[in-house]
Amino acid sequence: MRHIQGGLKVALILAIDDAATDLALIQYILTNHEVILARNGEQGLQQLEEHPQTDLILLDLHMPIMDGFTFMDRYHELNLDIPIIILTNTEEVAMEIQGLEKGAVDFIRKPLNFKALQMRIDVQLRLKQSTELIKEHNRHLEELVEKRTREIRRTNEITINALVRLLEVRNIETSDHARRTKIMMELLCKQLQKVKPIGYELSDKEIQELIDTAPLHDIGKVGIPDRVLLKPGKLDPDEIAIMREHVNKGVEALDYSIESEDSKISFIEMARTLIASHHEWYDGSGYPEQLRGLAIPLSGRLMAVIDVYDALTSKRVYKEKLDQAKAIEVMKMEADRHFDPVVFEAFLQVVPQINMRMQE
After folding, report:
1. What does the alpha-carbon distance between residue 351 and residue 323 come to, in Å, rounded to a whole number?
2. Per-residue 3-state assignment (H helix, E strand, C coil) for the chain
3. What would the pLDDT profile of 150-197 be if each residue is shown by its tens digit?
4. Taking the CB of residue 174, how many other CB atoms lie within 10 A of it?
5. Average pLDDT over residues 117-137
6. Residue 111 C-alpha from the chain's centroid
7. What are the coiled-coil residue ranges (predicted)?
8. Mean pLDDT value of segment 289-304
9. Confidence at 6, pLDDT banded by 50, 70, 90
10. Considering the chain, what is the average pLDDT of its residues?
11. Helix crossing, 298-312 with 266-277: angle to 10°?
12. Highest mean pLDDT among 112-121, 190-199, 254-263
């Protein structure tokens, strides 16, 4: 691409003016650039349709058929981002202000001065060139961020799958466990996002992290002895205490060192919070911290409902599975004590969708 003095690129400039002498003068002054001409606003719009790559517009305000103000109104409908310099007479101060209010970036008074016109145009072209470089740089950064985000998501998925496989190897969960919990968490979160109860707001990023981390809620069970974990009968008090240690073991499994609050990893923090609180009961009778009500993190209140439903509708070493209707009946019996009422109501609304998705 050809450049002129100072590294400025040769520009395509649209001059719109009904005065032939002014158009001829503009062409003469701007010999370093490519200039296309229009005698009124209507012709100017036609030129823009043919040349959307135009870099700058010089616009007279007094023209037949379509004046400069009407042109500017119509121009904005085209969603183009081309700087406009208006051409005015010395006494037209009010019109200059009106033109600037409509989006013009500058004005030049007639009769046209060679040096003033050249300098004003150079300033606007340099600004446009710099803006385009910044936009291109930002697009490149956005592409890098998007690529890095995809890599992080993929790394997270691999990490989760590896950890969940540990549960499968121990015969604690089936390979479908991760899929079930993800489906339920997705539908439950989106239902809350839809009805928007105060205090239950979830961003798209938070929902995605909840979906991704839901399968990790019982990862601490890999540290529980087989004699307790796989016992087919009822656990005694000592065994219950051992089993409950899976919560702390799960949190510890995801422990990592941080230098400051800024270095916390959002994804891991969500998983740790979910693991730590998903066995808390709404009435404060849960474990390990006996948290009550809204003191329980929302991630834990969400996972509590999902975990119970999944446990009731899945076969375990110590029990057979229940059908969905019976499972909901059992959950309703203890809902007042166990579950956040807002979360439980949202869950009941999506049970039909859950059942449909499970059959896919």
Report:
1. 12
2. CCECHHHCECCEEEEECCCHHHHHHHHHHCCCCEEEEECCHHHHHHHHHHCCCCCEEEEECCCCCCCHHHHHHHHHCCCCCCCEEEEEECCCHHHHHHHHHCCCCEEEEECCCHHHHHHHHHHHHHHHHHHHHHHHHHHHHHHHHHHHHHHHHHHHHHHHHHHHHHHHHCCCCCCCHHHHHHHHHHHHHHHHHHHCCCCCCCCHHHHHHHHHHHHHCCHHHHHCCHHHHCCCCCCCHHHHHHHHHHHHHHHHHCCCCCCCHHHCCHHHHHHHHHHHHCCCCCCCCCCCCCCCHHHCCHHHHHHHHHHHHHHHCCCECCECCCCHHHHHHHHHHHHHHHCCHHHHHHHHHHHHHHHHHHCC
3. 777 777 777 777 777 777 766 665 557 778 899 999 999 999 999 989
4. 13
5. 83
6. 52
7. 127-154
8. 96
9. low
10. 86
11. 60
12. 190-199
Number of other CB atoms surrounding residue 81 within 10 Å: 9
CA distance 355 to 309: 11
Report d(CA 254, CA 216) in Å as an integer: 10
Place of tokens 């040096």: 115
d(CA 355, CA 360): 9
User: Which domains are present in the chain?
Assistant: 5-135 (3.40.50.2300), 170-358 (1.10.3210.10)
Of the given ranges (6-10, 207-211, 232-236), which has the lowest mean pLDDT?
A: 6-10
The span from the CA of 353 to the CA of 251, in Å, is 31
Give me the pLDDT at residue 2, please.
Answer: 45
Within a 13 Å sphere around the CA of 87, how many CA atoms are in the beta-carbon half? 23
Amino acid at site 20: A
Per residue in 329-344, pLDDT tens? 999 999 999 999 999 9
Query: For residues 315 and 324, what is the distance between their CA atoms, to the nearest angstrom?
Result: 13
Question: CB atoms < 10 A from the CB of 176, how many?
Answer: 11
